[in-house]
Write a structure and sequence with these properties.
The two termini are 17 Å apart. This protein has seven helices and 15 strands. Strand 14 and strand 15 form a beta hairpin. By secondary structure, it is of the alpha/beta class. It has one domain: UDP N-Acetylglucosamine Acyltransferase, domain 1 (3 Solenoid), CATH 2.160.10.10.
């Protein structure tokens, strides 16, 4: 075995501030890949309760986070259950507070506007206090700046900052990004990742290409 087991709860020298996130998830509507971690000095193990908001089973949306993602403290996912009806004069959710206010309520006034699953692919880095809105897809290799509000899809290897979040730049040229997505090192067996760490975290793309070729024929 190379590297830490993805099944360890506290992979950072046993310190409680960091968890491999999949090991604290209990809901079947949340999926997290191996080695994705969450750092929070106060509530690392409470991510599911504190950081995934308005996630109701009856809505049916899912949160999917891939492998090797890094989530800083207070990274928050707002799910579709936060939506209110916007077809009338008021957005107040009368129907949830009293039986007599449920009469005549049409669930379609909310459900017709839901945006579906929230998806984070692989190797995405979230800065402190980043917020992801419902139904967003964040593609592999993206960086989400601290306190950014992500309200629309993020392309691969984009750097996104602000509120609303906007793409400031791409981390690499388009040809390099396309090849990186084809390589998809996050899907390699851990032993191969360990063997080629220098190529993965190095700045010389030629080295990564060479390492990939060796991996493909191994």
């Amino acid at each position: 075995m190379h590297g830490p087991s993805p099944d360890i709860l506290h992979p950072f020298n046993g310190e409680p501030h960091t968890v491999f996130l999949k090991n604290v998830i209990t809901r079947p509507t949340i999926e997290v890949g191996d080695f994705t971690y969450y750092n929070d000095p106060d509530h690392a193990t409470a991510f599911e309760e504190r950081n995934v908001r308005y996630h109701f089973d009856f809505v049916g949306d899912r949160l999917k986070i891939g492998r090797f993602c890094a989530l800083a403290q207070d990274t928050t996912f707002i799910m579709n259950g936060a939506n209110h009806a916007m077809t009338g004069f008021s957005t107040f959710p009368f129907n949830i507070f009293a039986d007599e206010w449920r009469e005549g309520f049409d669930p379609a006034t909310i459900s017709d506007h839901l945006r579906g699953d929230t998806i984070v692919e692989h190797d995405v880095w979230f800065g402190t206090g980043a917020t992801v809105m419902p139904g967003v897809t964040i593609c592999s290799g993206a960086i989400i700046g601290a306190h950014t509000v992500v309200a629309s899809d993020v392309p691969p290897y984009a750097v996104v900052v602000g509120n609303p979040g906007r793409v400031m730049r791409l981390r690499f040229d388009e040809d390099t990004i396309e090849r990186l997505l084809e390589i998809a090192w996050w899907n390699w067996p851990v032993e191969k990742i360990t063997r080629h760490l220098g190529a993965i975290r190095g700045a010389d793309f030629a080295i990564l290409e060479q390492a990939t070729a060796e991996t493909e024929i191994s």
